[in-house]
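Course exercise 7: structure representation. Students receive a sequence record and must write out the corresponding structure in token form. The form below is the worked example handed out in class, using Rhodanese domain-containing protein (378 residues). Read each field label carefully; the graders check that inputs and outputs are placed in the correct fields and that the protein name is recorded exactly as given.

STUDENT ID: A-19
EXERCISE PROTEIN: Rhodanese domain-containing protein
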Amino acid sequence: MATASLAVAATSAAAELKLMVATDPSGSRELLTARYHDIAISLQAVLGQPVRVERSTVFAEVLRSTRTAEFDIYIVPPHVAASALAHKYELVGVTGKPETFVLVARPGIGSVAQLAQRKIHLAQQDSLYAYMAKGLLNESGGSLTAAKEVRYERTSGAGLVAVQLGLFDATVTRKAEYDEWIKTQNGNKAEVLIESKPVPGGLTLVVNKSMPENLRQKLTAWAAGNAPMDLGLGRMQATSDKAMYQYVGGLGHFTPLQLPGVTRVTAQQAAELMRQGAQMVDVRSEKEFNARRIPGAVLASYIEKSAKDTTFNASLDDFSAVDALDKNRPVIFACNGAECWKSYKASKTAVARGFKTVYWLRGGLPEWEELNFQTARN
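STUDENT ANSWER:
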């Protein structure tokens, strides 16, 4: 990992704690004044153990490190924190207030669908801006892979300027940045196509769950005090609310909200359709189907090898089990919820293969169970 490392000498024999501070060069002011060596000294004084601080702007590597639990503590942007929280870490505090991001396009581009074969300008690859761009497009049925060109730069403001000058067709930026920028424009230079839900602002502090409880309590007290502000990190507020991080973590991984040619249904609607004769089709694996399923569903596993993207290459997947179904009977495809792409791909492919009536239970088995509907198992 391309990082800068600062170790603080210790007189004790206690094990060294590793801290990763990841900074986004396209995030403008974040951590410009942070004193990394002093952060290590401050934490060592509080925790009573040597602390090694590493800092990085290479988010692909930092994200990978959260999955392998390489650091005891992370102070990172929210999309990195979301990954850590899904892999052995717990939430301690956050320095910023919730904020939203917007997908902005040149006037005359009225929808995400019209961005296909257009030019998109984004901040650094794997930065929060780029992460939000992929997620916002994905939620709306678009894809970065459908763009004619995607240009990544190390500054967020360049995207708005590029759109203003007509060099690029769209960009993603913080809503607050867009609001300030639009005030300076004479005439409408860009339009908001999509606005995200609120996401955590600033930087987030997470800690490995394996850290002893007494050390976690000391770290929580440190975060709630004046030290983060004094050290240039910003005022940190204690929090245990993971909802916004779960939203961030799902962006780019969740299936779109709609699918042309397919009717998306709720679990309640699916149950009624089954009573009317529609066939529930479970496209998960046989093992998952045997363990727990919707009563009356048939197994038709969709063997997925293509990318989890709206522009997936169906020729890479095995659709044969679904292809064997009656194409004249209404079908409802379901799998393991909104983050499971098998039912999305099966629904889209079924329409292309001539199925007459296709329904998509996007929420899948989890939504069915949330309503306390009966399940079956072998």
